[in-house]
Amino acid sequence: MAELVPFAVPIESDKTLLVWQLSSGPTAEALHHSLFTAFSQFGLLYSVRVFPNAAVAHPGFYAVIKFYSARAARRAQKACDRKQLFQKSPVKVRLGTRHKAVQHQALALNSSRCQELANYYFGFNGWSKRIIKLQELSDLEERENEDSMVPLPKQSLKFFCALEVMLPAYDCSSPGIGLVEEPVDKVEEGPLSFLMKRKTAQKLAIQKALSDAFQKLLIVVLESGKIAVEYRPSEDIIDVRCKEELHGLIQVHCSPWKQYGQEEEEYLSDFSLEEEEFRLPELD
């Protein structure tokens, strides 16, 4: 059976491992490194988080590990449960469970996470991006000294970007758009600060457009291990751009792509047991 891997934050319980009975000897930082090394061999990891045990429990740590792939999480659970791994005593590993009534809307990955996921499945040279349009839409008022780069108070820098992610090996492309508006502080900041903010806003617009383009792609991992790609332009994933502001700026036309082939505004969700609704499974 094929597995679908979206460019979204993995919040599903079948992609999350709970690891406990970790030794109290090493520091949390050392355990993080050991866990990442041990579990990353089964698949690409989204996060590894280490927490101290509750005060009423024995001294030590437990960890929450998130994979992008449910299949990789299952392999890791079977291979690592009740094994010593990097410590003298065995650890316990279980797939996370969540109350069925709890539902979460998919959160889009930021651009750096999208690139990490694309590099893992497509290869570093398996994809590329092409900027179609990068336009400044800032509402800076005119000033008497036209050579001055100092902005007036209560103004903003606004950039719009349209680009395309291309997967040549899969005969597939995906357009993306991003709109960024950054407030500009008072005159006291000076021209250098303004130039830095302008550069930052431009970069963020490109990053948002790149993330938007990846959201329309779905990685299909076949049983044989081969990779296919599906283009899905109407997927309902949370985005931060304002559609009303983007309307009329640019029209990006896209045709139905083939669905098979070969193989900060940041949406990182800080884990908490109450937020994620995880519970440890009962053991025999």
Give a structural overview.
The protein folds into two domains: 86 residues, RRM (RNA recognition motif) domain (Alpha-Beta Plaits, 2-Layer Sandwich), CATH 3.30.70.330; 130 residues, Enolase-like, domain 1, CATH 3.30.390. Helices cover 24% and strands 28% of the residues. It has a four-stranded antiparallel sheet, covered by helices on one side. It is globular. The C terminus is likely disordered.
Q: Compute the gyration radius: what is it? A: 23 Å
> How much helix, percentage-wise, in residues?
10-25%
What is the general shape? globular
Q: Could you give the count of β-strands?
A: 12
CATH architecture of the largest domain: 2-Layer Sandwich
What is the domain total for the residues? 2
List the helices and strands and how they pair.
Layout: E1 3-6, E2 16-22, H1 28-39, E3 45-52, E4 61-67, H2 70-80, E5 92-95, E6 97-98, H3 111-122, E7 128-136, E8 155-167, E9 172-184, H4 190-215, E10 217-221, E11 227-231, H5 243-246, H6 273-276, E12 278-279
Antiparallel strand pairs: 1-10, 2-4, 2-5, 3-4, 6-12, 7-8, 8-9, 10-11
Label this structure with key terms.
284 residues, alpha+beta, Alpha-Beta Plaits, Enolase-like, domain 1, 2 domains, four-stranded antiparallel beta sheet, three-stranded antiparallel beta sheet, 6 helices, 12 strands, globular, disordered C terminus
In short:
The protein is of the alpha+beta class and 284 residues long. It has helices spanning 28-39, 70-80, 111-122, 190-215, 243-246, 273-276; strands at residues 3-6, 16-22, 45-52, 61-67, 92-95, 97-98, 128-136, 155-167, 172-184, 217-221, 227-231, 278-279. It is 24% helix and 28% strand.
